[in-house]
Automatic annotation (TrEMBL):
Protein name in UniProt: Cadherin-19 isoform X2
Lineage: Eukaryota, Metazoa, Chordata, Craniata, Vertebrata
UniProt keyword terms in alphabetical order: Calcium, Cell adhesion, Cell membrane, Cleavage on pair of basic residues, Glycoprotein, Membrane, Metal-binding, Repeat, Signal, Transmembrane, Transmembrane helix
Any GO MF annotation of the entry: beta-catenin binding
Biological process (GO), any one: calcium-dependent cell-cell adhesion via plasma membrane cell adhesion molecules
Residues annotated as domain Cadherin: 68-148, 149-256, 257-370, 371-470, 470-565
Main location as per UniProt: membrane
GO cellular component: adherens junction; catenin complex
Role according to the record: Cadherins are calcium-dependent cell adhesion proteins.
Gene behind the chain: CDH19
Residue stretches spanning the membrane: 581-602
UniProt xrefs under Gene3D superfamilies: Cadherins, TCF3-CBD (Catenin binding domain)
């Protein structure tokens, strides 16, 4: 079977399709046929490929024709298309075998379609020939412009870089077929960035073409264009922008903008005081702008400069104190340089920038200044009042030279005048105090707030004014039968005076004991032994002598010649004396405790007197009887007027002024009624007792009283107080009170008789 594929003209170009003839034992042969012709092949048919241009914008575009050599044109054959894209992208005319593209083709989406063709006999429904496979290849056209896929581009390069320094490489991509023509062959060019940058046409590498200074401009925008078809006519292009920043290098040295700085400092400022700041400027940034200040010229070595690392300022500080009267102004020169400088950039830092600083010293009112930091004087002890000790001197360092007044703080032994002369105010005793630490104060008369003080040390020198004496109290015991030459006591002496040499004492008997043959004295080679009344002389100048008495007890010793018996008797004697002292102390203690107990007892008794009702003894029996009075209407029992006629006043412990007030109130209350006056009087008495009671609590308290009236001729009817005077009390008067009291008279009368 022979077949052929017809391809139409596209864009005025004849499109040829190859028709391959396949045999069992022969190779297919490619044959180009013009459009409208067909190729017939024997013994079957095989399609190789179709070439179809992309970007078909028509809804139905004829691609070619499939035709079997068995087809005689009677429409008995049916053509079918099978495979990817069949029916959706490509369709075939079943009668004629014409293939059409019904969708727009895009090579960048799909460049190759593999399909299969069949020829069916309509009458039999069977395939006329075996199924044959063919390929439709979409041809590329230049329909895609170059694109930069890695946007945005940003690069950094050091300033002052030489020509040819690589900055960055930009790369564009073209979706067209790079293997077919020049559609994807790109060419780069620089649209913006001359004359500082250039781009390699084929690689897109951007390089520096001229040195740049960051201090003039620190960033640049460069525009790169990529054009396909090697820039030929009809080529498509794309552009991108590249931000190129210049990084800083230390190509600028710091410079002082001020050639002269004027500063001032007070003469009273301590060392380390900040006087002022100086400032240099560096066009570089970051680490390259870090500066270091130093003093270049300062013969006085009075000032120094340190760097503030945060503000990059130079701080001028005081290295030594200044004195206005000595020098009132200074001139120094300072320089500045960068802290970090690379060797290849040293050419920019050959000479450091300098500036001159003039410093004015300000005068202040300074306190007096002593000529010495301290004074040490010596004076002999036991000298009279007003003895010269030494002289101190202070002056006003200011120009006005104020007079100075001196004083000694907290000293009764020395005094000082306005000339600074120190004298003694009282005799000095080295044995009491060998050194005196004085504080001398100098005050300006023109300004008393200006004060200075220095220490003055006064040493009191020794004179031989103390005679030697026994180092301790000696109790010497000797037997009455002691032999001649026997040592009975070894003694030693002390001297409170200070000696240049070691103390040495000379011991002799007093004149009155010289003729006493019972005792002698022997100088024991520097360790003298003394007996009885002894003269002790020191080695001072002049030598002093003292008489010291040694008490010797003569004892009746035992056969061994021991003096223990005498010592025991003395011990008992001293113990007896101590016992008497202890007894006397104990008696005193007992007297003191007795006085304390007596005082407490008196206070307790006084408290009972102030509250007599609290001390009543309620130990008596209470008798119960059923007789009742007749009330207010009962006037037959007794005469109430008779009871009130002799009113018995209670004892009052009040002051005279208070008693007079009570009597006045009593007289006033009689105008209202006798009962109310009596009650008011009772309340006032109790109030006065509470106010004058020293044992009453120091806070508000509630006092309750049972008032039975001011009493009657018969006295109290209660038997509670009858324990004290039952035998002496007579109850006969109860019979005179009326029939209501007969029961009581009978009861108490019989009780008295039984007691008797």
């Amino acid at each position: 079977m022979n077949c052929c594929l017809l391809l139409p003209f596209m864009l005025g170009i004849p499109l040829l399709w190859p028709c391959l003839k396949a045999t069992e034992n022969s190779q297919a042969k490619k044959v180009e046929q013009p459009v409208g012709s067909h190729l017939r092949m024997k013994r079957g048919w095989v399609w190789n490929q179709f070439f179809v241009p992309e970007e078909m914008n028509t809804t139905s575009h004829h691609i070619g024709r499939l035709r079997s050599d068995l087809d005689n044109g009677n429409n008995s054959f049916q053509y079918k298309l099978v495979g990817a894209g069949a029916g959706s992208t490509f369709v075939i005319d079943e009668r004629t075998g014409d293939i059409y593209a019904i969708q727009k083709l895009d090579r960048e989406e799909r460049s190759l379609y593999t399909l299969r063709a069949q020829v069916i006999d309509i009458t039999t429904g069977r395939a006329v020939e075996p199924e044959s496979e063919f390929v439709i290849k979409v041809l590329d056209i230049n329909d895609n412009e170059p694109k930069f896929l890695d946007e945005p581009y940003e690069a950094s390069v050091p300033e002052m870089s030489p020509e040819g320094t690589l900055v960055i490489q930009v790369t564009a991509s073209d979706a067209d077929d790079s293997s077919s023509g020049n559609n994807a062959r790109l060419l780069y060019s620089l649209l913006q960035g001359q004359p500082y940058f250039s781009v390699e046409p084929t690689t897109g590498v951007i390089r520096i073409s001229s040195k740049m200074d960051r201090e003039l401009q620190d960033e640049y925008w460069v525009i790169i264009q990529a054009k396909d078809m090697i820039g030929q006519s009809g080529a498509l292009s794309g552009t991108t922008s590249v931000l190129i920043k210049l990084s800083d290098v230390n190509d600028n040295k710091p410079i002082f903008k001020e050639s002269l700085y004027r500063l001032s400092v007070s003469e009273s400022a301590p060392t380390g005081t900040s006087i002022g700041t100086i400032m240099a400027y560096d066009n570089d940034i970051g680490e390259n702008a870090e500066m270091e200040y130093s003093i270049e010229e300062d013969d006085s070595q009075t000032f120094d400069i340190i760097t503030n690392n945060e503000t990059q300022e130079g701080i001028v500080i005081l290295k030594k104190t200044v004195d206005f009267e000595h020098q009132n102004h200074y001139g120094i020169r300072a320089k500045v340089k960068n802290h970090h400088v690379d060797e290849q950039l040293m050419e920019y830092h050959t000479e450091a920038s300098t500036t001159f600083i003039r410093i004015q010293v300000e005068d202040v009112d300074e306190p007096p200044l002593f000529h010495l930091p301290y004074y040490i004087f010596e004076v002999l002890e036991e000298n009279p009042h007003g003895l010269f000790v030494g002289m101190v001197s202070a002056t006003d360092p200011d120009n006005r030279k104020s007079p100075i007044r001196y004083s000694i703080a907290r000293s009764k032994m020395f005094s000082i005048d306005d000339n600074g002369t120190i004298t003694t105010a009282n005799p000095l005793d080295r044995e009491i105090s060998a050194w005196y630490n004085l504080s001398i104060t100098a005050t300006e008369k023109y300004n008393i707030e200006q004060i200075s003080s220095i220490p003055v040390y006064v040493q009191v020198l020794n004179i031989n004014d103390h005679a030697p004496e026994f180092s301790q109290h000696y109790e010497t015991y000797v037997c009455e039968n002691a032999g001649s030459g026997e040592v009975i006591q070894t003694i030693s002496a002390v001297d409170r005076d200070e000696s240049i040499e070691e103390h040495h004492f000379y011991y002799t008997l007093s004149v009155e004991d010289t003729n006493n043959s019972s005792f002698t004295i022997i100088d024991n080679q520097g360790e003298p032994v003394f007996y009885i009344s002894i003269l002790i002389a020191d080695n001072g100048t002049p030598s002093l002598t003292s008489t010291n008495t040694l008490t010797v007890h003569v004892c009746d010793c035992d056969d061994t010649g021991s003096t223990q018996t005498c010592q025991y008797q003395e011990l008992m004697l001293s113990m007896g004396f101590k016992t008497e002292v202890i007894i006397a102390v104990l008696i005193c203690i007992m007297i003191i405790f007795g006085f304390i107990f007596l005082t407490l007892g008196l206070k307790q008794r006084r408290k009972q007197i102030l509250f007599p009702e609290k001390s009543e003894d309620f130990r008596e029996n209470i008798f119960r009887y059923d007789d009742e009075g007749g009330g207010e209407e009962d006037t037959e029992a007794f005469d109430i007027a008779e009871l009130r006629s002799g009113t018995i006043m209670r004892e009052r412990k009040t002051r005279k002024s208070t008693s007079a007030e009570i009597r006045s109130l009593y007289r006033q209350s009689l105008q209202v009624g006798p009962d109310s006056a009596i009650f008011r009087k009772f309340i006032l008495e109790k109030l006065e007792e509470a106010n004058t009671d020293p044992c009453a609590p120091p806070f508000d308290s509630l006092q309750t009283y049972a008032f039975e009236g001011t009493g009657s001729l018969a006295g109290s009817l209660s038997s509670l107080e009858s324990a004290v005077s039952d035998q002496d009390e007579s109850y006969d008067y109860l019979n005179e009170l009326g029939p209501r009291f007969k029961r009581l008279a009978c009861m108490f009368g019989s009780a008295v008789q039984s007691n008797n």
